[in-house]
Amino acid sequence: MTGSSRVVVAVAVALAAACTPGARPRLGLGEICTDSSECLAGRGCFEIVSGRPLVCGEVCFGAADDCDWPAYPDAFCHSPGRPPAGYCVVPCSDDARCPGDLVCGSVGHCVPPAGGWRVVAPTIPYPIRRVDMVVMVDNSGSMTEEQRELATRYRWFIRDLVDPPDRNADTLPDYPAVEDLNIGVISSDMGVMGYRGIRSCELADFGDDGCFRNTPSRTVPGCPAYYSERWLSRNPANAGSYSPDQMADDFACIGTLGIDGCGFEQPLKAMRKAVVDNQGIGGCNAGFLRPDSIVTLIFVTDEDDCSVSPDHPYMFDPARIDLGGMSLRCFRNPDKVQSVSEYVTAFRSLREDASRIFIAMIVGVPLDPPVCEGDGDTLGACLAVPAMIPRPDATGERVEPSCLVPDMGTAHPPVRFVQLAMDIEREGVDTYVSSICRADWTDAIQAIADRIGNRISSGVICFTPELPFDRDRCEAPGCRVVAHLRDAGPCPADPRCPCAGGTCADPYTGEPCVPLYLDDGIGVETGRRWRRCIVRQAARTAGPDGCSGPLNDGWYWQPVSPEGCGVFEFHDAWEGAAFSMECRDVP
Fold it and tell me: Please, what is the angle between helix 267-275 and helix 340-348, to 10°?
């Protein structure tokens, strides 16, 4: 901790001053004061919460010190980061329990009411610079050429995301760079609910179960023997040593899944398992989705989805000839497949803000007429195209192909994918569909990169007037950023600096620390209750060339910037909140 000039951490304890009689009655416990001389004997005037009014209280020295308040026998000594000195506090469950002007704070004890800060920026645009991308690769027997094309084009795709192009020749990047990119790969193999003896469905129970695949391909030259991490990650911490090309090489290694997967492709079920069920504590993909990222789901398959409902496991029973041939089961029994609406609901739930979800599909839509490729809200005529209407082929054993390209093979009508693209687009989620039958995927991959890039924001906001700035400490004293949590729930915990009983400490060293979000109680604005969370100001160090980059997550102020103004930047942030800037004194 660098000191009390960092307002989000300045929880200071002022020792009691000598009391002298005043002309007016002395203030009692918990009453707002300006000086210790105003308080009753034995009381001092404290700033017990940064930025809130000073109140009369009692200094104490550690947990063993007795807070001798007859009216509040459960009062205890609270040390907010500068032991041994602290102050006595009263535990509470509501405001009525608190003495004087105090109110019941979310920390579980009485605190002064909020006030004393001037709002200089009521709304700060939320910065988005992270992308969490899940790529579903069909690993059934017809996908050799398509997997090869995907691995080849991903090299340019990753380059475009982290080093954006200038396609419009205006000398500027077309969009801000993705600074933090996670990529996970899953297969379409979800097993066959335990039925044995089905060719290519050796993992009969749950297949790969939506867990990220990280086994290197034996057919791709130069792959390592194994990957220790479940997904690929390139971020500011490793960008200097992990190039976009290396990430592309690694994607080719784990994204070339081979063609030994189950022929009952269930890609929608696999994706939902990957990004919903498997994200929980103990799940195989836990920790992949970050709350402040753009979630990108990409499907690459030459078949339609066949996500069988768990209520109908017999769909996989080879003996049930009444259900039709195995390759036609989902076509002939659509009522036994999970509805598209279930997946619309699942994928839409991934973010409160629909603009932070993007879904791309490289699937078997026909190339002609050109009404089946593009954004989801342009596909209204696609499902009426003859090639998109499923029908048995001449053998009566498979569905008639919807498209065919030499050297790439055939694909089948992706009716459920197109329906999903259109339906979830109505929910505010942008989607993009391209044909897997194109011999060259360059345009499709470029279009997907552009749509992701256009969702990235730089997180740089010009401020007028400029904020105060201490160049020696590389911080903006007297200013703070407040996150206003919409559902008034708790501020997110910081595992590197957990708080208990109003005290925050490093779990390994025990030293006082500052959490990324410090609870500042409940505020009422525009008729709604909001949880106020004080965002940590990121630490930086001063050097001969100016201030360093941020050393931890938080916000920081840069008085001189390439934008030609003083700028405010997030080094990390959090979805689910609106942000504002407050200062004590603005020049």
Answer: 30
Q: How many Å apart are CA 510 and CA 286, to the nearest integer?
A: 28
In angstroms, the CA 521 to CA 113 distance is 9
Beta bridge partners of 535: 481, 517
Residue 250 near residue 259, CB atoms below 8 Å: no
**Which residues fall within 8 angstroms of residue 581, CB to CB, at 6 or more apart?**
119, 120, 121, 124, 463, 467, 479, 480, 481, 482, 568
C-beta separation of 303 from 138 below 8 A:
yes
Pull the structure tokens for residue 393: 């082929």
N-terminal to C-terminal alpha carbon distance within the chain = 26
Angstrom distance (rounded) from CA 88 to CA 402 = 75
Stated pTM of the model: 0.67
Evaluate the CA torsion angle 286, 288, 289, 291 in order and state its sign.
positive
Nearest to 81 by CA among 41, 36, 50, 118: 50
Q: Residue 213: name the closest of 154, 138, 112, 159 by CA.
A: 138
Give the tens place of pLDDT for each residue, 279-318.
Answer: 988 999 999 998 889 999 999 999 999 999 999 999 999 9
Pairing of strands 499-500, 374-375: unpaired
Whole-Å CA distances, 152 to 79, 156, 246, 253: 58, 8, 13, 11
Residues 6+ apart with CB under 8 A from 282: none
Residue 277 CA to residue 198 CA, distance in Å, equals 26
Helix H or strand E segment including 485 = strand 479-485
Phi then psi for residue 523, to 5 deg, are -120, 155
In the block, which residue shows the tokens 């009522």?
A: 335
Q: Over the stretch 140-166, which tens digit does the pLDDT of each residue have?
A: 988 999 999 999 999 999 999 999 999
Q: Which long-range contacts (CB under 8 A, 24 or more apart) does 219-227 make?
A: 219/256, 219/258, 220/151, 220/252, 220/253, 220/256, 222/249, 222/253, 223/252, 223/253, 224/253, 227/253, 227/254
Which residue in the block uniquely carries the two structure tokens 């002022």? Answer: 14
Burial of 138 (0-12, 13-18, 19+ CB in 10 A): buried
Q: Are 410 and 151 in contact (CB under 8 A)?
A: no
Backbone angles phi, psi at 359, to 5 degrees: -125, 125
